[in-house]
């Protein structure tokens, strides 16, 4: 019988707090099927850093971009080696980071203001340059350096502790395969609807997870979708865990990374 693997799914935010924490779904996986055993809320980056240091073996799917577009790195003359790149970006204050992205975007032609990574197009994900809706540039700026500092293994980008494996996940990719582009979440209370709740129920029923009744209610009831997204990230990580090279391309673009399952 195949041994169980601890799997984490992490719905990330660039400003964790009590109202908007980093949400972690912990699961026990045999093959690609997961039993979700807990949902945890990390309300600070200190808590997130401590989480990354939990002893392995585990594999985690993290919902933020691990890298930046090659086009941007080329134009700005930035390092393509991932560890050097994230160390350089970590040295920038958030105001500097915003200013660089705004300035670079201003140099680009209309219709091509945002550079994309090779993985963004098949995954349907946003450019890591975006500062709003969603602010994934800020998520990269806060998340990627902490992965590097924790010494986890980042397949395709940086060797590390192979008992702690971090993969870039994107729950929207999995959700769209089930409900299309129908909305299933919103942070805006005025835009939260019973229809979205129904879509969350549909998505959860379609993925290979087992949960207690209490956790199922919690996942479906969260109108932000953060709890469901954490579960979907865990599903993506579990699926990747048993594929050669975690299902990633043989050559992951330097400095860019790749989304699991794209």
Low-confidence stretches: none
Give the class from helix and strand content and strand pairing: alpha/beta
Q: What spatial form do the alpha-carbon principal axes imply?
A: globular
SSE string? EEEHEHHHHHEEHHEHH
Total strands: the figure is 7
CA-CA gap between termini: 29 Å
Number of helices: 10
Radius of gyration from the alpha-carbon trace, in angstroms: 18 Å
Care to describe what's here?
- The chain has 262 residues and is of the alpha/beta class.
- The chain has one domain.
- 39% of the residues lie in helices and 16% in strands.
- It has ten helices and seven strands.
- It has a seven-stranded mixed sheet.
- A hairpin with a 2-residue loop joins strand 2 and strand 3.
- The protein starts with a strand and ends in a 21-residue tail after the last helix.
- The mean pLDDT is 96.
State the main characteristics.
about 260 residues, alpha/beta, seven-stranded mixed beta sheet, 10 helices, about 15% strand, globular
Topology (elements, then pairings):
Layout: E1 5-11, E2 22-30, E3 33-42, H1 45-52, E4 58-62, H2 70-76, H3 82-90, H4 94-106, H5 120-123, H6 136-150, E5 152-153, E6 161-168, H7 171-179, H8 194-206, E7 209-210, H9 213-221, H10 226-241
Parallel strand pairs: 1-4, 3-7, 4-6, 5-6
Antiparallel strand pairs: 1-2, 2-3
Helix pairs in contact: 3-6, 7-10, 8-9
Nutshell version of this structure?
The chain has 262 residues and is α/β, with parallel strands linked by helices.
């Amino acid at each position: 019988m195949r041994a169980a693997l601890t799997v984490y799914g992490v719905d990330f935010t660039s400003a964790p707090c009590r109202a908007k924490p980093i949400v972690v779904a912990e699961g026990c996986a045999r093959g690609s099927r997961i039993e979700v055993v807990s949902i945890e809320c990390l309300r600070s980056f200190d808590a997130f850093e401590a989480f990354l240091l939990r002893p392995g073996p585990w594999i985690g799917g993290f919902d933020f971009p691990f890298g930046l577009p090659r086009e941007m790195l080329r134009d700005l003359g930035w390092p393509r080696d991932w560890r050097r790149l994230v160390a350089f970006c970590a040295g920038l204050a958030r105001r500097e980071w915003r200013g660089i992205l705004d300035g670079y975007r201003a140099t680009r032609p209309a219709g091509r203001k945002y550079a994309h990574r090779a993985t963004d197009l098949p995954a349907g994900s946003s450019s890591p340059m975006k500062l709003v809706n969603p602010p994934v540039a800020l998520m990269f700026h806060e998340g990627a350096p902490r992965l590097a500092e924790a010494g986890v293994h980042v397949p395709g980008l940086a060797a590390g502790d192979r008992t702690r494996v971090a993969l870039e996940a994107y729950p929207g990719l999995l959700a769209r395969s089930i409900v299309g582009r129908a909305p299933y979440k919103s942070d805006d209370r005025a835009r939260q609807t019973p229809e979205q709740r129904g879509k969350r129920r549909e998505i959860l029923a379609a993925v290979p997870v087992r949960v207690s009744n209490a956790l199922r209610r919690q996942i479906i009831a969260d109108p932000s979708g953060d709890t469901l997204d954490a579960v979907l990230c865990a599903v993506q990580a579990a699926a990747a865990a048993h594929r050669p090279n975690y299902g990633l391309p043989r050559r992951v673009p330097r400095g860019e990374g790749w989304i699991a399952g794209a």
